[in-house]
Hints:
alpha/beta; Heat Shock Protein 90; Rossmann fold; nine-stranded mixed β-sheet; eight-stranded mixed β-sheet; 22 helices
Amino acid sequence: MAKKEFQAESKKLMDMMINSIYTNKEIFLRELISNASDAIDKLYYKSLTDTSVGMNKGDFRILLTRDKDNRTLTISDNGIGMTKEELESNLGTIAHSGSLDFKKENKDENIDIIGQFGVGFYSAFMVADKVTVISKAYGSDEAWQWESSGADGYELNPTEKDTAGTEIILHIKPSTDTDNYENFLDEYGIVAIVKKYSDYVRYPIQMEREKSRQKPEPDPKPDDYKPEWETYTELETLNSMVPIWKKQKSEVTDEEYASFPENHRFVIPEGCHWKDVREASENVGVAIVTAMNGIERANPDTLSGVFSSFDDANWTDKTKLSDERLKDLIEHMSKIKVGNNNYSADVMGDSYEFLIKKFADLSKKNAGEFYTPRSIVKLLIMLMAPKAGETVYDPACGTGGMLIEAIRYMHDDKLTYGKIYGQEKNLATSAIARMNLFLHGARDFKVTQGDTLRSPNYLERGSLQTFDCVVANPPFSLKNWGAEQFSSDIYGRNIWGCPTDSNGDFAWLQHMIKSMNPKTGRCAVVLPQGVLFRSGKEGEIRKHLVESDKLEAIITMASGVFYSTGVSACILFLNNDKAPEHRGRICMIDGSGIYTPQRAQNIMTEEDIQTVFNYYTEYEDVIEKVKIVTIPEIREKDFSLAINNYIEKKEQETVPPAEIRRQYFEAYKEMIAAEEKMRKLLLEGGYISE
């Protein structure tokens, strides 16, 4: 059959469904399981009045089948199924909900249909490049196959299927540098997602799982007998089906209490505990890697990439790390108590930060890619002054230092839970950021991996999510950053124009401005000083920036305070809710002379940043340091923001030429007299002769 087009606005609507309504890719499984549960509900409801159905509630199930070789994940149910017309209506029309239709037609209060909006199915395209649906409606002799690769349309053809129900086959996308899809084919990853989102679905969600067991011992058993183990598969129900809060206290087991998300932060799967690694007598490196990767797979939402983003070969190469050396390390670590009861989060977190800084000190050339000097981080956060309960977002979060400082500024208030967001392009660095936040005691934050300029991860209803505080030290003058895509940006981030692909500074700035809450949003960003005066497209964007009256302060900094670059930087502070007395004005601070020189690198001490911050809070002119400039004054200088054009200098004292000549000859006479005196002393001492 020829390909059919979707009956709704095709590509743009599809993009909105899969990229905007759902920002977390793992949500797809929840949506498809909910759809399967609804299909079973419909047939079960029919069985209550139609005995010919011949099925009891215990006969229904949802089956998950993974095929890693062919990269498919199948979600099957034995529910009501769909006719050809229903497939075309429900899947061929985006945002049509068959479940909602069913609920409207049946007013029984006992019917509890989960999915009613009609877009959840399309979340499958977040993780699959092709989706195949095979369905046979109850009471029908025909089965149909619906297949689509996305917004270009779908095909609908007859097929064979023995029983009523639906199979959804997802052809999982290959992983890329920015997106890891392997978790959706991994046994532990799937189990964790089901436990997280679908544990209380009232029908069994089942999957074949690999298990191990000891083989029967021979009889008689030889003296040198060693137990042998075998691997087997078993169909296992993954969900509990009953919420813990609906059970009697006496019915809740210790395991159920332990599995309740509020009682822990991580799942440690069987075989991945410290004791398991400690008991390994050989291939210790492999045991460490296996345990760490197992923990990561079991916690996809919180630990994705934290361990797997690093080179396992260093641990498993016995020429570098022998079994004996690793065992000695493990035994040494076993003697040290490092639990939460022994050390505060601040101690653990600051220790980790210390190691990050030490690494930055040793690798100065590349350190700027992930590490911002913490004094400058503190200054940025002081400028924004986040309040408990406000959202904080860093689109180039590196190792997470700015997010940690924001949490610290808010005194680790519980209102920060769920309000901290970061995105980082580098996989390993994003993993370090998550671990850094964990060790600092942060709770319920979100740090994702991805290219912010090309594919921002935080979206709401087709638009960028907005935040109260936006802070970043993005890569300076980034090349090949995606100008072509940005020029027609679907999120409208090119509000004042598109920079050239040779320099992404103003792309970062516009992304951050677009991410600011329209009413409460503040933004603090570190950029090279060239953004203050460069012409061309950047000059036009800067003109719009000034005229928007969002810019509240500019602070220039000394060269050499950042790792890996000698470029002089500046801080731009923007505010969507300027104080009335600040409107139409910009505070320009020359901080180029406010630093503490050290042999290897210039630094800004706590005292230095306090000096700069005081200049901002006072918001008044200081000769050679601060100038409060009006927008009309900037217009007169063709919208250049180069601070030297505005900062007032001290008046130089004018000395008459006659006075300069007098001082010169007087000094000359004093020099001649001093030389004559020295000559006489040398003669008297016999050091020279006439």
